[in-house]
Amino acid sequence: MYVTILSGHVSHENWTTLQKDYQDKVTRHPPRGLVESALVQSEDDPTLWHIISFWQSKEAFQKAEDEDEASLCVRLFCDAGGVPTRRRYHLAARYVRV
C-alpha cells in the first residue's frame, strides 16, 4: 500500500464547504486505486486539515495522478480557500480492527 497525506489550512468559514465537498466528491466518486480515505481536523490547530489516503500501490496513485484524479482532493482544499501540500509514504505496517 501507499499513503498520501494532503495538508492545508482552511479558515473557519470554509470548514463546512470542505467537509461537504469531501463527502460529495470523494466518497461518491473516489479515484481508481483509492482503498481508504479520511478527512481529519487538528485539535491543536482547528484550521489545519488533512486528507489521509490509502492507495492500492504507488503505481495506482501515480496512475490516478497522471489521469488528474488524484488532484480532486487538492481542488477541495483550493475551493475551501486553502493551499495544500502533499506528502507521500510507503506503508511500513498497519493495524485495522474489523
Task: Describe it.
It is a single chain. This protein is of the alpha+beta class and 98 residues long. Helices cover 30% and strands 31% of the residues. The protein has 3 helices and 4 strands; from the N terminus they run E-H-E-E-H-H-E. The protein has a 4-stranded antiparallel beta sheet. Strand 2 (34-41) and strand 3 (48-55) form a beta hairpin. The protein is globular and about 35 Å long. The two termini are 18 Å apart.
Task: Give a quick rundown of the structure.
The chain has 98 residues and is of the alpha+beta class. Helix content is 30%, strand content 31%. Strands 2-3-1-4 form a 4-stranded antiparallel β-sheet.
> How many helical elements?
3
Low-confidence stretches: none
Which percent band covers the strand fraction?
Answer: 25-35%
**What gross morphology would you assign?**
globular
The whole-angstrom Rg is 13 Å
Order of H and E elements: EHEEHHE
**Oligomeric state of this protein:** single chain
Spatial gap, N to C terminus: 18 Å
> What helical percentage do the residues reach?
25-40%
DSSP strand count: 4
User: Main β-sheet: number of strands, strand sense, barrel status?
Assistant: 4 strands, antiparallel
Strand order of the largest sheet: 2-3-1-4
Q: What structural class results from the helix and strand content?
A: alpha+beta
Mean pLDDT: 94
Keywords, separated by commas or semicolons:
four-stranded antiparallel beta sheet, single chain, alpha+beta, 98 residues, 4 strands
How do the helices and strands line up, and which of them pair or pack?
Layout (H helix, E strand, L loop, with lengths): L1 E8 L5 H12 L7 E8 L6 E8 L2 H9 L5 H8 L5 E6 L8
Antiparallel strand pairs: 1-3, 1-4, 2-3
Helix pairs in contact: 1-3
